[in-house]
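Note to self: keep these together.
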Amino acid sequence: MAMGFGAQKHYNRPMGQKTSKHSTKVPTKINRKQNHRTNKRGVHFTDIADQRHKYEFDWEAEGDYWFTPVELKSMNQARQDDAMILRSERHIKVATRDDADALSNTSHDVFIGYKITEALDDADDNHEVSIRGIEHFVHPVLQKEMVRRKKELKKSVLGYSRNPKMRRLDPKGVNLAKESTSHSQWARDVASERGIKYCEMKRGGGRGGGLLQKTKNIRETRRFSLVARMDRELRRDSLMNVLEKDN
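Structure:
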């Protein structure tokens, strides 16, 4: 059967079924809004039941696995007490945390860098308490600088997450990653410098002598202190028992 120009040939079309025609009607603004709403991804809930696994655990050994809030608070207080002792030995006041506030950008960076060098090159000649790891507590200006930079990093991340325009312009977070890297560069540099200083001291170099030997001395001193304290407690308990029997 010959077909003219523009005619259509239908194969296996059932009787009485009409052919579909493509609509040339342009969707209006309302239709576009409706299509946009219907194309949004919805939340789908699974019908698979939760699988719960049971593990045997000896709750009597709970204290060997986790620290209690009281223990965490005591450890933090111990660090603060050690820092207070070291500050008194070095004649550092807590008010020095504001020493860098009135400085300009360049002078501020130079002053903070000098304080970092001073903290890392500390002689650390106290055999009871060590400054290693709590330098920012001993030098309050370093702690304030650390908190300030941490707030700047947090502000940039939260600003990105709460700004739809920034998320649309940077969907993969590439620019956010670059900005976060620039904010955290100072902390990485300080950590690297601290690691280098600690390695030098462990090998016996640096102004403070060998870190490994000093750590051994501190552990021995603390062990003897612990033994002496336990001995005092045993004597006190025995004395209390004797007094109770007499009464």
